[in-house]
Amino acid sequence: MFAFPPQTAFGKTVPKSRIYSHALPTRRVRELFVSQLSEIIWTHKLSPETLRIPGTPAVPEIQVFDLILKGESLDEDVIHAIDRAIPFPIFHRLRSETGDAWSAAYKRPSEADGSQWVVGSRFTSSSLLHNSSFILPPLPAALDLGRLYAALFAPLLPLPPRAGEDLPRHIERCEAYNRLRRQVDQLTTRLHRERHFNRKVERNRELKPLLAELAVLKHDS
Question: In sequence order, which residues have a C-beta less than 8 Å from that of residue 14 and are 6 or more positions away?
């Protein structure tokens, strides 16, 4: 994703028991922790002390975790449990034998109780094969951790930010886009399977306004 500065390195293993005690996962999720996840490593801490930029009420720190997988996939409920247990925004690198993927859920302090965090929609990159010759770009320049959070999130989102669009509104637009994209995919599949001409016409009529809405969401202004 990015080359994190050396002074942000943390390098602490997080026991699964710590996640269990804070997130209280179900028995099924605990079993997924055991079967799918080998190790949780807290690799970097992006904070006012390590980066010399101020935090914000919504983003006092940003954490980076390596999740070492036993296979090639990790159930989202496992990552969600880790996010619920750690009261800061987190970017997770999902590490398998063949490649890495990045995943993050949009997190914010609860408006009802500032000591609690709301875990929102999750966005995950495709897995990239290991390539030792690939040079990671430097951490984006930012005036504070809130802006850095938005810059780190941007590569995971399906749409680029619009001018003047803050991260919450950008996330909302991407959520709407993903919901609509799923509807379009489902309707397109039904259209391709349809054999009757009149029903094909009806499916196309249903599809047209959805495609128009997608175009509006994708537009950069």
Answer: 40, 41, 42, 65, 82
